[in-house]
Amino acid sequence: MSMRRTTTTRRAMAAVSMTAALAFALAGCGDDGGDGPGKEGSSAPSAPAGPSAEDKGESKPDTAAGENANPDVKLAEARGQNGLTLVINQVKRDSGGFVTVQGEIKNDGDVTQNTANWQGQESALGAKNPNSVAGATLVDKTGKKRYYVLRDTDSRCLCTTAIATLAPGETASIFMQFPAPPQTTTEVDFTLPTFATTSLKISG
User: What pLDDT is attached to residue 31?
Assistant: First the structure.
């Protein structure tokens, strides 16, 4: 049974939040080998935001890979724990100064898998993005930089969130957006917690 979800609302929110998110690009990358997103740099104060969906008691929409990724294209594959398989379908550099990674995770094992570890170890990010892929990173080995998933001013990641547990045979579509490495960087290492590191070529 497939668990593909396409939530255009979140994709629209990502576009609206991109200006603020890119202001945090310095917080989304750091020297390779660091323990977490760099805290250096600052941004100009933003206008007061209206109440969030959580503040109004509304459920936060799930997010999933966009419509443009072809699920039949396999750029890379990484094995996870207990029969999980991550397939990357698209790695695209966008004109807004970010890189979007899209793919899917399938449970090829025989037991239901919990997805909580994919959100990473940063407590504030995990609290705002439970059961997400916010823990993913890109590493530019040439430039010696590690890039973290972009987030908005409320620490909501520009990535898939609220991924339910995966029963045997189920698949979840995912996407993540990162600050873009320099144009001269065409290949990066991609890591999602509990999965093996895999090399990705950037298009666009």
Answer: 59
For 46, what's the count of Cα atoms within 13 Å in the CB-facing half-sphere? 14
Domain that holds residue 154: 8-31+61-201
User: Is 166 part of a structural domain of the chain?
Assistant: yes
* CB within 8 Å of 135: residues ≥ 6 apart: 117, 118, 119, 120, 121, 122, 149, 192, 193
Instruction: Decide if 46 contacts 153 (C-beta within 8 A).
Output: yes
In a domain, 108, yes or no: yes
Q: In what order do the strands lie in the sheet with 145-148?
A: 29-31, 145-148, 137-140, 187-191, 198-201
For residue 86, count CB atoms less than 10 angstroms from its CB and return exposed for 0-12, middle for 13-18, buried for 19 or more.
buried
Most confident of 12-16, 38-42, 67-71: 67-71
Total domains in the fold of the chain:
1
What whole-number distance in Å separates Cα of residue 61 and Cα of residue 123? 21
Q: What is the pTM of this model?
A: 0.71
Angle 64-99-197 (CA atoms, 0-180°, nearest 5)? 80
Express each pLDDT in 21-62 by its tens digit. 444 444 455 555 444 554 333 334 444 444 444 444 444 444
Q: What is the CATH number of the domain that holds 179?
A: 2.60.40.10
- Determine contact, residues 83/108, Cβ cutoff 8 Å: yes
